[in-house]
Fold:
Amino acid sequence: MKKFAVQDHELVPSHVILSPEEVDVVLKEYGVEARQLPKIHINDPVAKEIEAKVGDVIKIIRLSPTAKKSVFYRLVID
Amino acid sequence: MTLSKKEVQQQIDDLPLSDAIRDALHSGLDGVELRKEQLEEIIAQVQADYEHSKVEPCEAVGVVAAQSIGEPGTQMTMRTFHYAGVAEINVTLGLPRLIEIVDARKVPSTPTMTIRLSPDYAHDRDLAREVAWGIESTSLLHLGSIATDLAEMNVIIELNEDALNQRKITAEEVAEKLREETGLAVDQKGNLLIMAPEEPSYRELLQLVEKIKKLSLKGVDGIKRVVIRKEGDEYVLYTEGSALKDVLLFEGVDPTRTKTNNINEIGEVLGIEAARNAIINEATDTLREQGLSVDVRHIMLVADIMTVDGELKQIGRHGVSGEKASVLARAAFEVTVNHILDAAVRGDIDDLRGVTENVIVGQPIQLGTGDVHLIAKR
Structure:
């Protein structure tokens, strides 16, 4: 049995955990609180792979068909 | 004085625009001699166009998306089944498929996978076939015939030598697997296997036959059929039935390019973002196959709203519409009486902030100019 990284799949965009300072910048830019962000479950395969913890904000760099690259944020919940 | 290539590129890279527009500017201005004012003029025009094409604040994007997908939807075929190319694999297309996607069904009516092979397997037909047989779930019926002897009260399984060789399984392995799964003694004489049920009754005998018919002896559970097709210069496997998790770990399969049409399964195995991409791909493919073109932005909005809470939600009573805050908005969608009754029992309050509820009570809706409030300064 071989192992493969979920993030290598072509359907999965890259996920990065943000540092608390980066989170503040993002929240300020959008003028929202962390709980108002879109969510991602703690047991999501990608969240598990990057070892995210509840309360982390994950930055997702999507390959958008219209803008080529678009950035999205999700809050890790359980 | 003309600007150097580097200066032009630098200026474009600093623009607060999307990568797609920047790339278009780069390729459009490549090798063009520009003066500073000219470049500024171009940039100003592009930025103005970009601002103009943005959605206005308070625009009802959801309604526009719903209508943009709904209108072409009226032109789609109602016929449920179709064959995907020459592969003879049945897949649901057209309107039923689109409904299936937005309903976020746990299992689609015709689950199918597109398995791409790793480079050393993809160009060799024999190796591709080997992978296909490894994945295809093999039952006794593939390998031979099953007969019941009512006089002796036993089941006689006759295995076909060619079929065994083709699928790389031996009669001993089959017998072993049967023993393991049923817990009964299996008498093996060459390619002949004889089994008897625990108690010699007709019922038990028939049940045993049914049970061993369904047993998967080899391969991935749930993959009923595998078809090999050549696409470009590589062989691609199409399956009837879907088991993404197991297939991804299979030797010879390229796990990064293998997909299923079961969006829930993608969500479980590859995560919510992959599920979002899968919704977009499946919906656009379904519409395009019918010769309809819907702007991808509308479909992206649908995919976003379905995945925003970290789990797949359907567009409907049990999902997006059912979770609306307003009682009247929920009641306007489906099962009106239940919603109003429940709300009355609980003593719910409707803040009348959405569109539907304001239409119902006859107030201006809070969209576009309706959302702007003026406050007089004293």
Chain B has 18 helices and ten strands. The interface with chain A takes residues 18-21, 23, 248-249, 251, 255-257, 259, 266, 268-274, 277-278, 280-281, 296-297, 300, 304, 307-311 of chain B (CB under 8 Å). The longest helix of chain B spans residues 36-53. The two ends of chain B are 56 Å apart (CA to CA).
